[in-house]
Amino acid sequence: MKKKKKQKKKKKKSVESKPLPSRVRKLFDRAKAKYTALSHRIVYTAFDLAATLHIPLVDVVKTLLIKTEGGYALVLLSAAHRLDIKKFSRATGAKKVSIPPEKEIVRRCKIKKGPLASFGSFYKLPVHIDRALVKRKKALFSLGSFQQSVLLPVKDFLTIERPTIGVFHARRKG
User: Fold this and answer.
1) Suppose 80 and one of 9, 57, 151, 166 were both cysteines; which one would form an S-S bond, judging by CB atoms 3.0 to 4.6 Å apart?
2) Is the pLDDT of residue 9 over 50?
3) Which neighbouring-strand residues pair with 150?
4) What span, in angstroms and rounded, lies between the C-alpha atoms of 114 and 116?
């Protein structure tokens, strides 16, 4: 009688590569960007994303939609920081700055409830990026999905989006 060999169960990877949506791929290819598309388990926070992908929180991009008297814009900063609205006002000259409620974000960006992509060109919005994030070599940017992100050299992001650079972060408390 032959002995059956026990097969080891393969651990399910928490990260894998998955094709990018075509509009994203075209955007990156036009800019000759060196990117890595990452598919991962569903995550709802930057902390979970950093833990899942085993990368420092400082390299995860937090994307916020803000509203000023001049209209809407995306603000990008390291997930290790929080937005300092006073600093943002001084840096941009905006007198009135607020973060709109989720319903307004969904309506303005024409998306389902969920994360915003870090690319203002998807929504025809200007982008402001914090200088601390610009100093990073690579960062993990949102594609507007709970399960897919892109690791991209920050210099390539700057070429693609041409954001305004300013200092508007504050250290996270605690």
Assistant:
1) 57
2) no
3) 37, 141
4) 7
Q: Which CATH superfamily hosts domain 15-168?
A: YbaK/aminoacyl-tRNA synthetase-associated domain (3.90.960.10)
pLDDT confidence of residue 105? 94
**Do the bridges between strand 71-78 and strand 61-68 make them parallel or antiparallel, or are there none, so unpaired?**
antiparallel
Closest Cα to residue 43, out of 147, 135, 151, 169?
Answer: 147
Higher pLDDT, 149 or 11: 149
Is the separation of the CB atoms in 168 and 64 below 8 Å? no
Q: What is the pLDDT, as a whole number, of residue 12?
A: 41
pTM score over 0.70: yes
Provide the H-helix boundaries in the chain: 22-30, 46-53, 85-92, 102-109, 131-134, 154-161
156 forms bridges with which residues in the sheet? none
CB contact at 8 A, 52 and 67: no
21 pLDDT band, cuts 50/70/90, is confident
As a whole number of angstroms, the distance between CA 53 and CA 41 comes to: 10
d(CA 37, CA 16): 8
Q: What is the Cα–Cα distance from 77 to 1, expressed in whole angstroms?
A: 64
